[in-house]
Amino acid sequence: MPGSPSNTVTAFAPAKINLYLQITGRRDDGYHRLDSLIVFADIGDQISATSSDQLKLTIEGPFAKGLSSGDNNLVIRAANILAEFAGIEPRANITLTKNLPVASGIGGGSADAAATLHALTELWQLTLSKQDLLALAQKLGADVPVCVHGKPSFISGIGEIITPAPDLPEAWLILVNPGIAISTPEVFAGRNGDFSKVSPFATPPPAYTEFAALLNERRNDLTVSAIAIAPEIQEALSALDTSPGQNLCRMCGSGATCFGLFEDEIMAQKAADDIQTAHPTWWIRAARLRS
Ligand code: C5P
């Protein structure tokens, strides 16, 4: 029954990785048009929500420090926007377990908002069409709709046009954050130069080798701007570049986290361990790409 005190729901908020991210134009309102392949990793934050007579957010976990649980938190905004749409009071005790570094280009905040929409839809026993859920998600941020979708996708527009990606081969990622948070608007504002062509894959890559080759033909157009703000990103890319077994290394989203792509789990784990040994203060994780 909705509102029952024993009622707890959980939702996983996976790390979101732009395997490539090309800027294809700029709108009059300043937002950039994107062409990107987004995938999700098997590591992430966790949302749990319990019935309550009020709306309250508790943040715990290794990256909880410094995060506000006030009205501006995307989790609270997601709860309010969903309740308003449904015409109900936003009543829930929500716990966010923050495992991913904050402002790190792997979509933590957007994934948390998407997981909140999923968890509260279930907790409040709402019936929403996918279209309504995606429209609410879009109001929370350009990246939130694809996180609601939660499957490998090409995105276009400013992030709101989602096209399911074809089946992708199994792959491993290592995520490397050199311990810095970076401002997404600042990175977008610092981008210069020509726009890229829209280039989603026309056909599914038959195997890992072709997959890596297709990705290597594309790029992350925010890299130069992000490195100008945070030169440590170049160090993270160099550490990945010299790791045996990687077939691609690139910045995630607007940075500062970077990723390496591996076919082999053991080589990915070994590369993660070696980079961690050389850089004990960096945040480094090996993760499987979720299909
Ligand atoms: O929508 P979101 O809050 O994630 O975007 C953060 C900022 O990144 C925006 O305010 C904008 O400056 C920039 N941005 C952009 N074009 C996009 C997405 C984000 O310029 N497609």
Overview of this structure, please?
The protein has 291 residues and is an alpha+beta fold. The protein has 2 domains: 8-164, Ribosomal Protein S5, domain 2 (2-Layer Sandwich), CATH 3.30.230; 172-288, Alpha-Beta Plaits (2-Layer Sandwich). The chain contains 9 helices and 10 strands. The chain has helices at residues 74-86, 108-123, 130-140, 144-149, 184-189, 208-216, 223-229, 232-241, 265-278; strands at 8-26, 32-50, 55-60, 92-97, 153-156, 161-164, 172-177, 246-251, 258-262, 283-290. Strands 1, 2, 3, 4, 5, 6, 7, 8, 9 and 10 form a 10-stranded mixed beta sheet that branches. Helix 1 runs parallel beside helix 2 (108-123) and helix 1 crosses helix 3 (130-140). The longest helix is centred in the middle third of the chain and has 16 residues, at 108-123. Bound molecules: cytidine-5'-monophosphate. Cytidine-5'-monophosphate is lined by residues 31-32, 34, 141-143, 158-159, 184-185, 188. Cytidine-5'-monophosphate binds at residues 31-32, 34, 141-143, 158-159, 184-185, 188.
How many strand segments? 10
* Total count of domains: 2
Radius of gyration: 19 Å
Instruction: Assign the CATH class of the largest domain.
Output: Alpha Beta
User: In CATH terms, what is the fold-level topology of the largest domain?
Assistant: Ribosomal Protein S5, domain 2
- Beta fraction: 25-35%
Largest sheet composition: 10 strands, mixed
Measured as a percent range, the helix fraction is 25-40%
Number of helices: 9
Order of helices and strands: EEEHEHHHEEEHHHHEEHE
